[in-house]
Structure formats: structure tokens, C-alpha cells
Design a protein that fits this description.
Alpha-D-Glucose-1,6-Bisphosphate, Chain A, domain 3; alpha/beta; seven-stranded mixed β-sheet; 38% helix; A-D-PHexomutase_a/b/a-I; magnesium; four-stranded mixed β-sheet
Amino acid sequence: MGNLMVSISGVRGRVGEGLNPFEVVKFVSAFAEFCGRGKIMLGRDTRIHSLLISQLASGTLLAMGCDVIDVGICPTPTLQLAVEHSDASGGIMITASHNPAEWNGLKFISSDGTFLTPEQHKKFVELVENGNFNFAKWNLTGNYIQDRSFLDMHIEKIFKIDFVDFESIKARKFKVVVDCINGAGSEIVPRLLEKFGCEVIRLNCDGNGKFTHEPEPLPENLTELCEVVKQAKADFGIAVDPDADRLVLVTEEGEPFGEEYTIVQAVKIVLEKRSMLSDKNVVVNLSTTKAVDEVAKIYDAKVYRSPVGEINVVKKLLNTLMQKNLTSLLQTSPCPM
């Protein structure tokens, strides 16, 4: 594993070097074992080698006795949502996120749709290092099906968010430029915006996996998007990374809004919509801007911080909710005396 980056977020490396077929089979076999050889959902981004790795992963899972649901090209959050709302034992997303084109990787998703916890990750890596896998007998191999319905399901779920005023947004008839870097968001992001009533100008939305600029959505990589926003007199621009789990906004002046400001704005909107609640809580990681705390003060909300990493934020959120519910239960339960 020397040439691979192995972390709580998954494994990634340069294709043909650190990430080769042997490593794919090893990690996927270990994940099948980790998931009790249950049903696994499989998704991928559009990198030119993602289909190859997906086929390797699928064949390995079937050989381990796992049933496979192939979701196809989709954002990482779509696959997470699909796993959460299914009876699958886990999911594997083929992507290297915002890394350059020669990279690829595997993101491992637990049965609840989140990434593996540190404890789960440790157990999983032990299985990888042990490497002693028993493949299924010829009559016990898994079943393979394709299901491309989850993009639609994801959009439907978004339109069920109760505090979003969809009709007001539609009435604004925003003009939006979208740069999906020909990645996994190329279909779903423009479709979602059109359902919001936006006029969408597509930029790098062919979904062919050919990155027209460096894939990490940093300001220096978004010069084309910024220029098109100004030329088209658009209301704003959107850039996502290859697996569409990271977003950057561009203002009508063609200036990147910045991810730090985006999360502050999101926190402000949610707290504003939830202002009547007596107990308001926000969970972010330790590197998130302290501007979140300033916004939280305005709405009398408490901020909790976790170590960096999506699963750490999720764990902190769940633990916070559990503590709040326990406190509420203790305060409202009758005294046993």
C-alpha cells in the first residue's frame, strides 16, 4: 500500500502505479468481507478509467458472493443517499474526488449511507492487510443488476426539504452558469437547476470525463467559469468537482464566493428558517471559519466542532442529538420515587 493514500475517506492513487487491479481486488474483497458479503451498491464518476475499475470491483464483489446494484455514473452524495434508503450492506464509489485525471480511488460507504467511522476503518484495514479471502463457490456467487433511478430519487428528496421556498426561487428565473468539469454532476446538477426554474448555461457538462482544467474547484482553476458568468450576465455560477460532493459559487461579478462563505451562508439560511426553535445547534469541523460562530450567536444557536472529516462531523452531530434527546428525556420523565 506504499504508493496508495489510505485514509478514513477511502483509498486513492495514480492508476497503473499505486492503484492497480491487484489493489482494487484486495480492497474490494476486504470490503465484501467487512459487509458480511451482503448487497453492495456501486457508483462511479466519469474518469476515463472509472468504468474499468467499476467492472473490476463488480466482478470481485460477485465472486465474493455479494449481490451488486450498479447505480452507474452519479455524485458521491447520490450513492450515499441510495445506500441509506435501501437494504444494502454498503456502497463503493469509484472516484478520486478532486485529484488530477491520472488518479482514481475507492470511497467506502457503510449501511447508513455515511463513510466508515475510525473504528470501522481500523477493522476494515485489518481485513485488507490480512488478505486471506475465500471466494464463493460457483453456485453461490452474487447477482448483478443495474439501477439508474437514483438521480431522480435524489432530486425528489431535495424537493421535499421543508424550509426551501421552491416557488419563490422559480419566480426569480435565475440565469446560472454551471461547470461540472465533465464529471459525475454533468447530468444531475443542470437538471436540478432547471427544476428550480433556472436558465442553465452548461460549461463542461458533457460527462465525458475529460477535465478541461485542474479538477479541484479553486479560484485559479475557475477562470473560464468566472468569465462566462460575466459575459452571459448570469446571476451566479456553480462549479463542482468530479464526484460532485464539493461546490463553489461564483458571484454575478465573476468572482469566486469562496467555500468558507458558502457554509456561513448555508448556516444563516437554515438558522433563519428554524429561528422559532428553542434549541438550535450547528456542527462543523475544527477548520471551519469562526464566522459560523458569529452567525450562530445572532440566532442563539450553539456550535459544536469535530475533527476534520465528513464522518467525524456526522458522528458529532449524532452524538449531540443523542445527548440532547437524553437530557430532554431525563428532564421530562417522572421521578421513579
